[in-house]
Amino acid sequence: MKTSLWLLLVGLLLTGCARSTVEKRRQERLAAYTELSPEQKSTVDQGKIKVGMSMDAVYIAWGKPAQILEGESSQGSTVTWLYHGTYLEEYRYWAYRGSYYYGDRYYSSPYMAYDYYPRGYVSAEVRFEGGVVKEWRSLPHPGY
Questions:
Q1: What is the pLDDT along the chain (144 residues), one digit of tens a residue?
Q2: CA 105 – CA 77 distance, rounded (Å)
């Protein structure tokens, strides 16, 4: 029962997040999108980013970051956008079923049960210098 509820909750969360599409974000920041080069427009339309893109282009391609970090390097101020992902982690435990009384004692059969709990992780990070992408990387799913 717990597993079904968790899967339903995760499904609802993922469905809610899917509504924020590239097309929707493109309309939201149409002025910034029209200023992109044809190559950058094509990349953004595919939901991808490249070094040299503006913050607006990254927003249109990937959406709003989960966290924004400010910092400084030898080149000057930096801004890092972090994107989060979610995975289900299995949790195993001993449970009991088939309880019965025999004489004056209570007996039950142990079995290995499991549930899944949603866990968050940083799935990608984008570092900006001077308002343009200096570097980016995607990070591995911790469940693999």
A1: 455 555 555 555 554 444 469 999 999 999 999 999 999 999 999 999 999 999 999 999 999 999 999 999 888 899 999 999 999 999 999 988 877 777 777 778 889 999 999 999 999 999 999 999 999 999 998 866
A2: 71
